[in-house]
Amino acid sequence: MKASAFVYPWDVVGDGEAAARIAALGVEQVTLAAAYHSTRALTPRHPRHRVVTAEHAAVLYPPDAARWEGRDLRPYPAGDWAPGDAWGEAAHALSQAGLEVHTWVVLAHNSRLGAEHPHTSVVNAYGDRYPWAPCIAQPATRAYVTELAAEAAVRPGARGTELESLGWYGLAHLHAHDKTGGVPLGDAGQYLMSLCFCPACREGYGRHGLDADELATAVRAALEPVWRGEARDEGWADVEKLLGAETAVATRAYREETARTLQEEAVAAVRAAAPDGFQVLLHADPVSYHCGANAGVDPAHILSVADGVVVPCTGGAGPIGPFAEQGRAGAVLAANVTVVGGMGGSPHTLARDAARARDLGANELRLYHAGLASDADLAAVRSALADL
Questions:
Q1: What pTM, to 2 d.p., does this model score?
Q2: What local confidence, expressed as pLDDT, does residue 233 receive?
Q3: CA distance linking residue 239 with residue 249, whole number of Å
Q4: DSSP sequence for 321-385
C-alpha cells in the first residue's frame, strides 16, 4: 500500500535532517499543509524550537495579490510560524529527499474569518454564531473557498492535493479550551446544533418548502430532550424522531445539495488550475449529513467528482466500506491512521491496522502525523512499513 505522512512546513524548514528522516520512514509521499487552521503543535526534534503556535488560519505560502484584489474575503498570510514561502521551502527539501509532495488544504474552517467577518459564520437555531465554521451556503464564502482551493492546492511542484473540510462545519470542533462535552449530544444533537439559520440558509430552507422561523422553533423544541440528558444515539433515525421525518428530510436535502455543489465547484477549480495528472482527493465521511474536517458526502457522487477520498481509520476499522462498495476502478481509498501515541494512535499496531483497513477496501495509507510523533512512534512506523 502506498503510504503518505502528514507534515507541516515548520517540521521541515530550519531542520536540515527532517526530510531525510521522513523519507526513512518508508513512505513514498508527504501531504504537506499549504492552508491550515490555527493550532499549537509540538516539534519534538527541531533544532530551533519545540512548540509552534499558529495564531490563526493562514496560507503557508505568499498568496497571489492579484487573485484576491477587490475581495472582502481573502486568505491570511502566516506569521512568524511560517514566514515567506514556507510551503515551497519545505516542499523542495522533501522532493530532494525523493518524496512525492501533495498539498494539504483546509477550507471551510477558519476562526479568524469568523471573528473579522461575523456574518460569514454558521448561526444555530438559538442565534449563536460559530466563528470557526464559515457557512458554505453564502455566495461570498463559496467563492472564497473555491478560489482558495485552487490557489492553495496547486503549488509549484505539487503532484496532487487533499482537500479537508470541503463541506459543512458545525458545532463539533475542538475550539480553544473546549467545554461543550458536558451534555452528550449524539448524532441527532450534533446535526440539530449544526443547522444554520443565516440569511442564505433561511432562504435555502424556503426553496425546500420550509419556513425558517418555524424550523428554528422546531429545532429548539427537538433539542429539549437532549438538554435533559435523554438523547439517544440512533443516527439519522433519531433526527427524524426528534424533528419529524418530513422536516428532517427537507433540511438534509438542502444541506446535501449545498455541500455537493460546492464540492463540484471547488474540485473543478483545482483541476482548471492544475497540470495534467494532478490528483484531487477529499477528506470525507460516507454519512452525508455529518459535519467537520471529514466532510459528509455521498460516496457514489464524490467518487465521480474527485480521484478518491481520505477516510479516518485509526484502529483499522473505519467508514471506508461504503466507498469501496462503489467499485470505482482507479479510485484512491486512503485509510487515515493516527500514529501519534499521545493523540490516541497506536503506531505499534500499524501493520495490523493497515491490513484491516485493506480488508475493508483501502488501497493507500495516510499517517497522521510525522512531525508530531515521538521517536518511539516513528520507529514503530518504520518497522510496520518495512513489514508491509
A1: 0.97
A2: 78
A3: 9
A4: HHHHTT--TT-EEEEEEE--GGGT--GGGHHHHHHHHHHHT--EEEEETTTTS-HHHHHHHHHHH
